[in-house]
Amino acid sequence: MELADRAVGLLLSIISLSIFTYYTFWVIILPFVDSDNFVHKYFLPQEYAILLPVYAGVTLICFLSVFIGYVMLKSKKKKA
Amino acid sequence: MKHIIKIMSLLVSVSAFWISLLLTSIIPESYTLLILKWSTFLYQLPIYLIVSLGCYGLLLVGIGLMRFPTCPYESVLLQQDIVEAKEFLKENKVDVGSD
Prior knowledge:
- The structure holds two protein chains of two kinds.
- Chain A has helices at residues 2-29, 48-79.
- Chain A is an all-alpha fold.
- By secondary structure, chain B is mainly α.
- Chain B has helices spanning 2-26, 32-43, 45-66, 72-91.
- Chains A and B meet through α1 and α2 of A and α2 and α3 of B.
- Chain B: Component of the dolichol-phosphate mannose (DPM) synthase complex.
């Protein structure tokens, strides 16, 4: 059990660090690099740097609202 | 109430700093290409800060999971305590449930 916890913790840390480095490169370093450099191949166009987090945030908020509404409806139905 | 005022003042100060940085790039300087790149970076800065805050939270959760102590010695002692308590209660004719 302890090994599974540590494996999941390590996986989470690696995922968060990789997302952070990729996003830092994308947002901060790439605008200051010449447009015909080869690194631009490895990154999506710059508009997606804004669209992807906004889309993820909107999806998260929608999921949370649906979940809260479902729990509220279920509790009201059980009481009635 | 004080917490809300603290958070709102922090938010207002950060946005004022961001707007002042934006205004410095409107002042005409010689290198317009550098200005374009700098303003692109500035417009993406708030979302970048929010994403990095989320990553930092995930990192803290992962590191906490890795370092969580399981205390195996105390777990063994607790199991012994449970067995003793069950025997004592059974002697005093208290129903301790299924074993």
